[in-house]
């Protein structure tokens, strides 16, 4: 898949072959962040499935407010707007749904990909994708859910402090990729996974596929939670997307949030 010379609203729209996910595309050369941009669009009435894509973000961020910045032409930076009809307590699981979709897209390109729970997409034990989900409510109902995605596509180097933590599709394969097609693949898989998710509002229909590429599965892990940190063995996730960690005494603890270190994989801590 060769790098495309053009990357804009038209070329991205042409690459998306879905019913609703990304059928409306907004593109900008530069924004503060695609999450902030699509939040503004949502207030103007943007519909379910609207996708905002930028070439450069001046204020991109990831989980735990970590800064996310990439040179122009190197990455996919996008946010999809969702207007779910289910209750707000289920929205957090959509982060895992998107992580799965990105991993499936990368898998389709022929890479040996895995997921570090909850949503880090991993190649060669290093991260290639960041995901940030935000929700707004109207009373007791969801007003919008925004899922921001950053994928390292055509990056050839990283700052020294990130070299043991991050990689890109280009670095792993030795070739550059058409970012339009990357977006098209992610939207295809996300639409399929989202529709399976909303049938039950949990991971019942996605559990087998998620476990197939879960780096944490049956691996020693350390749950990092300040003074309450502990070690155990990951036994996968449950239908709510919680990580099941078995301690030495045989008890199983459900982890719903936080940083999990997997032996042999990068860590930010």
UniProtKB/TrEMBL annotation:
GO MF terms, alphabetically ordered? biotin--[biotin carboxyl-carrier protein] ligase activity
CDD domains with a match to the protein in the record: BPL
- All copies of domain BPL/LPL catalytic, residue ranges: 9-198
Q: Write down what this protein is called.
A: biotin--[biotin carboxyl-carrier protein] ligase
Keywords recorded for this protein, A-Z = ATP-binding, Biotin, Ligase, Nucleotide-binding
Q: Report the domain of life of the source organism.
A: Bacteria
**Is Ligase a UniProt keyword of this protein?**
yes
EC numbers listed for it are 6.3.4.15
InterPro entries documented for this protein: aa-tRNA-synth_II/BPL/LPL, Biotin_CoA_COase_ligase, BPL_C, BPL_LPL_catalytic, Transcriptional_repressor_C
Q: Which NCBIfam families match?
A: birA_ligase
């Amino acid at each position: 898949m060769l790098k495309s010379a053009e990357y804009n609203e038209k070329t991205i729209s042409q690459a998306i072959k879905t019913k609703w996910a990304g059928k409306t595309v907004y593109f900008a050369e530069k924004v503060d962040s695609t999450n902030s941009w699509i939040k503004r669009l949502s207030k103007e009435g943007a519909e379910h499935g609207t996708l905002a894509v930028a070439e450069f973000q001046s204020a991109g961020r990831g989980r735990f407010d970590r800064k996310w910045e990439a040179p122009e032409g190197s990455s996919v930076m996008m946010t999809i707007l969702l207007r779910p009809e289910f209750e707000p307590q289920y929205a957090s699981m959509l982060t895992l749904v998107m992580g799965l979709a990105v991993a499936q897209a990368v898998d389709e390109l022929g890479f040996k990909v895995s997921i570090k729970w909850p949503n880090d997409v991993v190649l060669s034990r290093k991260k290639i994708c960041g995901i940030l989900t935000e929700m707004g409510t109207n009373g007791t109902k969801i007003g919008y859910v925004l899922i921001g995605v950053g994928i390292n596509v055509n990056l050839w180097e990283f700052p020294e402090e990130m070299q043991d933590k991050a990689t890109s599709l280009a670095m792993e394969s030795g070739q550059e990729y058409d970012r339009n097609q990357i977006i098209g693949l992610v939207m295809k898989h996300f639409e399929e996974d989202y529709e399976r998710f909303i049938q039950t509002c949990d991971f019942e229909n996605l559990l087998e596929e998620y476990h197939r590429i879960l780096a944490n599965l049956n691996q020693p892990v350390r749950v990092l939670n300040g003074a309450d940190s502990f070690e155990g063995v990951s036994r996968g996730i449950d239908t709510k997307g919680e990580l099941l960690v078995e301690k030495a005494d045989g008890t199983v603890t459900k982890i719903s949030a936080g940083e999990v270190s997997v032996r042999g994989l990068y860590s930010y801590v």
